[in-house]
Amino acid sequence: MSLEEEIVSDDEMNMIDEDDATDSEAESLSDSDTENEITEKLPEPTKTAVYNRAGLLDKLQDISWPEDVDWSHKLTIVIDQEQAIDVNDDLTREMALYNQAHQGTTQGYGKFQERDEIFLRPANYYAEMVKSDTHMEKVKSKLLYEKKQMEESEERRKARDNKRMAKEVQSQKMKERAKEKKDNIESVKKWRKQRQQSGFSDKEGVPELDFESGKSFQRGGGKKRPGVSPGDRSGGKGKPASRMNNKKREFRDSKFGHGGGKGLSKQNTAETTNDFKGGFSGGKASGNKRQKR
């Protein structure tokens, strides 16, 4: 072990000893305090102390209210406590204070009414508030924000409940449809079985229906006739419309053509680019005409 480690270990032991000593001192002081509370007596006054009882009473008489002073100057109400109250019981103590304040308020209200004196605050009196308007505005905005948050959370909860309920209803509908389909298939199988037992064959004049596959039925057995358009309801027996008999259509075709792209009609091709036989046509200055100066 090095010297530094020995020094650190010694310091730790000293700190532990000091903590134990402080704990023991605290315990001894607490024990001595409890003993002093029980056995301690008031100290006797010193020899130089002055106890002038007559002077104290004289000063008390000077600062005390006169006996014939009106009640409106003192506004004091004395409430007699009928029974003793345990001050260590919080509920009983607070209830006694409440009852005392209620009785005193009731008596004071009755005395003011008997004297016919104005003691209520007038309607046009605005006292200075403890909290400023700015502070109360902040409190109001915070309360409104909390109320809004609560409403939004309530709406989200309702939306979740509605969504869950919709899923349950949808699953219930799916189950009902599956059950109905199964019942229909069972009824068809039962009908076929009854026909076989009664001597009828399924292939005599009765089409074969595949209820179990769940596919939709098609007209004509799903077969397409060659040369018949899908929209032709006559089955190919009707006369096709001839374009040659329509004179109006023939006239328009001869006049306007058959349509098609005409945007590239004036575009050069490889043949027109290499064709120099046509030559170039002269402009306005061609011939014997002279330009006027």
Look at the structure and give the mean pLDDT.
75
Distance between the termini: 123 Å
Q: Give helix % range.
A: 40-55%
Poorly predicted runs of 5 or more residues? 1-8, 282-287
Strand segment count: 0
Cα radius of gyration in angstroms: 58 Å
State the helix count: 7
**Element pattern in H and E:** HHHHHHH
Oligomer: single chain
Beta-strand level of the residues, as a percent range? under 5%
Specify the structural class: mainly alpha
Shape call: elongated
Strand-helix topology:
Layout: H1 3-39, H2 53-63, H3 71-74, H4 90-115, H5 133-198, H6 247-256, H7 270-274
What does this structure look like?
Helix content is 54%, strand content 0%. It is an all-alpha fold and 293 residues long. The protein starts with a helix and ends in a 19-residue tail after the last helix. Residues 265-275 have a biased composition (Polar residues). Residues 1-45, 148-293 are annotated as: Disordered. Residues 148-167, 173-189, 247-256 have a biased composition (Basic and acidic residues). This is Probable rRNA-processing protein EBP2 homolog.
